[in-house]
Description:
Layout: E1 5-6, E2 14-20, E3 23-29, E4 37-40, E5 44-51, E6 64-69, E7 74-77, E8 83-90, E9 104-106, H1 114-126, H2 133-156, H3 166-177, H4 185-191, H5 196-204, H6 210-227, H7 236-242, H8 248-257, H9 263-282, H10 288-294
Antiparallel strand pairs: 1-2, 2-3, 3-8, 4-7, 5-6, 5-8, 6-9
Helix pairs in contact: 1-2, 2-3, 4-5, 6-9, 7-8
Protein name: Helix-turn-helix domain-containing protein
Organism: Microbacterium enclense
Domain HTH araC/xylS-type: 168-269
Amino acid sequence: MGRVTPHPYRPSWARTVAGVGSVRILVGATVIGETPRVAIAEGEVALLISTSALPTARPERRRCAAFLVSESGRTHTLPPGRFLMVVAFPAAALEGVGLPRGARLPVDGASALFWPFFAFAWTVAMETAPQTGLSMYFTERLLQEMLTGVIVASIRVQDGLPGHQPYVAAMSMITAQAGDPMLTPSSIAEELNLSLRTLQRHFSAQNTTIEARIRSVRVEQAVRLLEDRVYDSLSVERIAQACGFSNGSSLARAFASEGRLSPTVVRESSRYRTVAVGERERRQPGSSSLAATAG
């Protein structure tokens, strides 16, 4: 059984800090006389949210300010507000979305997904009941997909940002919906109100194809699941289906097309590395096991 786990870093304003796979959520309230700040780790991006009311409040009472920060490895100040939330996740999850490097992007709190996402993330952070590896996976996936949708909607309404470009807009859809087996070049073109041929030309200008980018994003998602010990209970077949493939064989073919080892080898190699690192740490001078031997 898995669990929404506490995270070791806790700023003074955060009452709850939880980890869900690769996503960490900090929830709290403003401390009088203190400016709320949060440190974003290398390789992370984070959504900073400040609100006047809890997510369960009536719509007319909801006021919020939200920003996405992509400059990692430094401390960021949260907007003023009574209730605070930070959702940090791997920058790789937004690959292809078109987020400007180092940006502090205002997030559209009026978008259809924002408050449902905020309420769901708040509930997840407060959850204490154990989860299976499968439920943990779907919770992490839903958080990332909802968050990607919120961010994509915000990018598209910002003047001067590349969200209106067909290639970037299509990559936003692929990143957010790669796990959907119904995602196809035709469905993407239809969603963007473009002809399939026009969209194909935009991808050709980037020296790639729509099918290749869908496959690549799906393979990257599968690799992350195969290498994460949290999801050891998921079979290769189940991971394949969760990432938009019909079965384990189609996943293996996609891995081969991307120049990767087989899914089974990727998982076994990751487990071996984890065991090897643990063994090295155990044998470090001064460890308890060596100290006991010396005694």
